[in-house]
Amino acid sequence: MRATRGEEVSHTPVWFMRQAGRSLPEYRAIREGTAMLESCMDPALVTEITLQPVRRYGVDAAIFFSDIVLPLKAVGVDLDIKPGVGPVVATPVETLTDVELIPDLEPGHVPYITEAVRSLVGELGGTPLIGFAGAPFTVASYLVEGGPSKDHARTKAMMFGAPDVWDALMRKIADISAAYLEVQVAAGASAVQLFDSWAGALTPDDYREHVMPHSAAVLERAGRLGVPRIHFGVGTGNLLSLMAEAGADVVGIDWRTPLASGIGQVGDRAVQGNLDPTLVFAPTEVMLQRAAQILDAGRAARGHVFNLGHGVIPSTDPDQLARLTDFVHEYRPAG
Ligand code: 1CP
């Protein structure tokens, strides 16, 4: 929390995107026989899964175990998270009527989220809980494509060709994501992360015109809650200044952009990142050498939260992440 605000810290804090998940044997065991969305709606299970990596690694933050499509499911969108695939939407959104049929999110849609966050905050003690939501563009991609997509072609076709439908859809998702963050913070989450994982598919001009105002609306509402806002995307080396300007306190930087260059783009803000997630498969000394370079580079930022440049890869050896966490905690820059 101090690092997100640019205050002095005794060591650079560290957590990992997807720290709770398939890389952990205890996660695979507890999830056996329970579908993903069903797990997200079970407060006891959410609490346990969120705590697993905190216990194992001693990371400086917990990330709430949920998914960016959970709030859509909660308001009644017919979707499922298919193992090995990801979110699949039964009837993709095409028209204005399709958008208007999606209800707004009320806290009453997600009582199990409130309960899970409250229970977690009690169990976590001093470790902050990061709540999260999907940013409008990334969530729209699942709703318009009907599932995971590499090129987001249908989504961008709507953005370029049906501006009225696009605008309505982005407003709808922005409202849902902001309301979802409000529920998590009201229940005790200490910070929030807005995941715009697929924003890197956009040119800066298209991002600025068609996407940024809607992400800014979510971040503005989150800002009123008084918690630090982390804004993250993948392949966003050309968008970092805009993602910062959209209203972030901390900008998440993926591994393709050197941290020093990312810091130069985000202005007087903290940064998060950005070790290549495949480096945990390298020899330990190689991984740690690269982590040291990132820790050194991070000193130029207003604040630095160490993380991977994207989520933990499911086949990651948890012992490598344990070594990495300890290294970050013990690291003191030379000089
Ligand atoms: O059955 C399973 O185990 C499903 C795998 C899984 C898990 C563990 C999915 C399906 N989602 C999650 C949890 C999850 N999703 C978390 C909490 C855990 C943590 O971080 O420790 C978070 C923060 C997310 C967010 C999420 N979901 C994002 C943004 C983050 C990112 O990775 O860029 C995205 C894009 C999704 C969609 C999604 N959900 C699941 C999958 C496999 C995907 C990606 C599909 C695709 O490639 O498009």
Protein structure class: alpha/beta
- Which radius of gyration do the C-alpha atoms yield? 19 Å
- SSE order, one letter for each helix or strand: HHHEHEEHHEHHHEHEHEHEHEH
Q: Please state the oligomeric state of the protein chains shown.
A: single chain
Mean pLDDT: 97
Counted up, domains total 1
Q: Largest beta sheet, briefly? A: 7 strands, parallel
Poorly predicted spans: none
List all distinct small molecules, including ions and cofactors, that are bound in this structure: coproporphyrinogen I
- CATH architecture term: Alpha-Beta Barrel
Number of helices: 14
Helix content: 40-55%
Distance between the termini: 26 Å
Q: Which helices and strands appear, and what pairs or packs with what?
A:
Blueprint: H1 25-31, H2 36-40, H3 43-57, E1 62-63, H4 70-75, E2 79-82, E3 86-89, H5 96-100, H6 111-124, E4 129-134, H7 136-145, H8 153-161, H9 163-186, E5 191-196, H10 204-223, E6 229-233, H11 240-245, E7 250-252, H12 259-265, E8 270-275, H13 284-298, E9 304-308, H14 318-330
Parallel strand pairs: 1-4, 4-5, 5-6, 6-7, 7-8, 8-9
Antiparallel strand pairs: 2-3
Helix pairs in contact: 3-6, 7-8, 7-9, 8-9, 9-10, 13-14
The structure holds coproporphyrinogen I.
Coproporphyrinogen I binds next to β3.
